[in-house]
Amino acid sequence: MMMTDSYTPVLSIKHLDHFFGQGEQRKQALFDINLEINAGEIVIMTGPSGSGKTTLLTLIGGLRSVQSGSLKFLGQELCGATSKQLVKIRRQAGYIFQAHNLHGSLTALHNVRMGLEIHPQYSVKKMEEMATHILQEVGLGNRLNHYPDNLSGGQKQRVAIARALVNHPQLLLADEPTAALDSKSGRDVVTLMQRLAKEQGCTILLVTHDNRILDVADRTVYMEDGILKSNQLAPTK
Amino acid sequence: MIKVLQQLQRRTPLGWLQLTHHKSRLFVAISGIAFADVLMFMQLGFQASLFDSNTRIRRALNADIVLVSPKAKNTQNLSTFARRRLYQAMDVPGVESAHGFYSQTINWKNPQTRQDNPLQLIGFDPNYPAFNLPEVNQQLDEIKIPDVVLFDRKSRGDYDQVITQVSENNWVSTEAEGRKITVKGLFSLGASFGTDGILITSDQNFLMLFPRRDAGSVSLGLIQVEPEADSVIVAEALRSHLPEDVEVMTIAEFIEDEQKYWQEESPIGFIFTLGTAMAFIVGVVIVYQILSTDVSAHIQEYATFKAMGYRHRYLLAIVFEEAIILAFLGFLPGFILPIGLYYGAAKATSLPIQMTLIRAITVLILTMIMCIISGAIATQKLQSADPADMF
Predict the structure, then answer these.
(1) pTM to 2 decimals?
(2) Where do the H-state alpha helices sit in chain B?
(3) For the range B258-267, what are the long-range contacts, defined as Cβ-Cβ under 8 Å and sequence gap of 24 or more?
(4) Which three-class secondary structure state does DSSP give residue B282?
(5) How many Å apart are CA A153 and CA A182, to the nearest integer?
(6) How far apart are CA B52 and CA A175, in angstroms?
(7) Which of A17, A120, A146, B143 has the fewest CB atoms nearer than 10 Å to its CB?
(8) Which parts of the chain span the membrane according to its record (chain B) (predicted)?
């Protein structure tokens, strides 16, 4: 807000608190979170387990209702948003999980197509084209009709990335996407995410424990006990 | 409407893909539903054959109006009333003729096995055919001869040699009620739940076999109305003309009365209804198991879909899609198998059991309802498909 009006952050979080449980069991998980992420930025969030990273990610992705404070995604306020508005938010963000979460009964191509089917503007033909194209981009052009069971861990995560990005979302949320992968495939997956996001102009918020991939970040934020401790530009950039 | 169709066209048939991806699981599911369908078909088939076989004698009667004792329960328990009611009936305008009909269970010795077997013996005046059965009416001259009877070739029991012999004009003699009787002809009516088979003879022969039975007490009165008379109106007139000790029914009411007895008063009709209901419930449980297992197996994928922006109703649609697919797939073997089973059951019991279109449609609809109920219960499991809790 200090800067000029022409610049709008993709994500703007102010004084965000979050609680779990009811009555005496009520426990605060997030304390006064303030964070802004600009378009095209790659932000990595680290911190120990249970520090509230995933909670924050689910709030941003519209998977959870914001209780207090302000969370603006592309200028839309999520605090007090209806479940219908949350569904809309979910469609604008791509989500990558720790597990690939691909549908076992669908081929790679069809799994990616599911990311387009929620958007009524695409025809079947267009969906097939876009899904094929992005699978080629992630290097799986020769695995289009494979079922997840016949793909390696790294390949499955690449299909998941294709599914999250096929629709050109403004924001990609990734929750420990390398946790289930060996270091080489983990590295490949992150590099791939970085490359595609740059090509599409997509912003990335990535939660990870994995120190080996910190270097892809423009900025790292560190979270502990529900508090955002540090928020700094990556020294290498 | 067009928009909905377009949406359907671009929608991935996830239910179908999920079901067909696990072939062995699908096979078990289809078997389970087919099993429930076969059970329903058998119960409904037996029930229909109960009504069909037991009303068969009444449907074959050559009468417009029937007089019967109010104490009558079914065709095998007709009780009796005074024959003079028939003469009184003749006074009513519109009545053309009224004839007595005698019926009683008789123990006869099966000529083939020499065992005593109960059959239903029917006697009537051979000059006035009591049945609309051409085969019987052609042989009325035979039963005018003393101690000659006609035998129902569709009777239940070991009668194949008897039937072959009689059809080759080798008469078969045996004993019944201490008299020697001769089978000189055959006809077809069929066994029922009430009797193993039927013997037809003249009223004179009937009374000779049952000497203690009074010729003046008849089991039924068969009334023909004049060609231009309306049997409903004549029946009404008869009701007001005749005393309370005899009941007047048109032939349609008389057939209905038999069906009502087996449906409501006899325990058998209820047992088949109950059996069908049980099969239905078994089906609901089986399909519920299949669908809820499937939901549990895909709960992570469903939660992922929700995180991607799919609504809850999309997941509901998958479950119901599966339910309907299973209903149809399970119905196919569930429909084909009973055709063979009916054939076997009809042979074993001498009862008329066949597949009918109406029953097939009934069971298909029941299967659909069964699967949709199971689907509705299984959708409760979808509540746990919450991406915020899962990841």
Answers:
(1) 0.80
(2) 2-10, 14-21, 23-54, 56-60, 84-89, 134-137, 160-167, 203-209, 231-241, 251-260, 267-297, 299-308, 312-349, 357-378, 387-390
(3) B258/B54, B258/B55, B258/B58, B258/B74, B258/B75, B259/B51, B259/B54, B259/B55, B261/B73, B261/B74, B262/B50, B262/B51, B262/B54, B262/B74, B262/B193, B263/B51, B265/B73, B266/B74, B266/B193
(4) helix
(5) 9
(6) 69
(7) A120
(8) 268-291, 323-345, 357-378
Q: Residue A61: which of B9, B17, B307 has the nearest Cβ? A: B307
- A235 to A39, A187, A194, B109, B301: CA distances (angstroms): 20, 20, 18, 111, 39
CA closest to A53 among chain B residues: B391
A101, closest residue in chain B (CA to CA): B301
How many Å apart are CA B302 and CA B192, to the nearest integer?
55
3-class secondary-structure state, position B266? coil
Q: What is the pLDDT of residues B122-136, one digit of tens each?
A: 999 999 999 999 999
Mean pLDDT of B34-61: 92
Q: Which of B226, B228, B230, B278 is closest to B250 using CA atoms?
A: B230
Please name the residue of chain A whose CA is at the shortest distance from the CA of residue B303: A101
Q: Give dist(CA A160, CA A154) in Å, integer.
A: 10
Strand B247-250 to B116-124 pairing: unpaired
Residue B21: list chain A partners with CB under 8 A: 104-105, 147
Domain boundaries, chain B: 13-53+267-390, 70-245
Spell out which residues of chain B touch residue A172, defining contact as CB-CB under 8 Å: none
Extract the tokens encoding B265.
């008063």
Of A91, A102, A127, Cβ closest to residue B309: A91
Token couple for A8? 């709008």
Tens digits of residue pLDDT in B192-234: 888 899 999 999 999 999 999 998 999 999 999 999 999 999 9
Cα-Cα end-to-end distance for chain B: 38
Query: Would you say B219 and B246 are in contact if contact means Cβ atoms under 8 Å apart?
Result: no
Q: Which of B11, B308, B391 sits opposite A175 (nearest CB)?
A: B391
How far CA A178 is from CA of A54, A101, A139, B137, in Å, comes to 15, 13, 18, 92
- Written as one letter, the residue type at B105 is T
Position A83 scores a pLDDT of 85
Q: What is the pLDDT of residue A44?
A: 92
Inter-chain contacts counted by CB atoms under 8 A, chains A and B:
71
Query: Which domains, from first to last, does chain A contain?
Result: 39-64+92-233 (3.40.50.300)
Query: What ipTM was estimated for this complex?
Result: 0.88
What pLDDT was estimated at residue B390?
67
Q: What are phi and psi of B77, to 5 degrees?
A: -130, 75
Distance of CA B306 to the CA centre of its chain: 51
The nearest alpha carbon in chain A to B13 belongs to: A106
Tokens coding B307: 């995180």
Nearest to B18 among A95, A105, A175 (CB): A105
Report how far residue B357's alpha carbon sits from residue B363's, in angstroms, rounded to the nearest whole number.
10
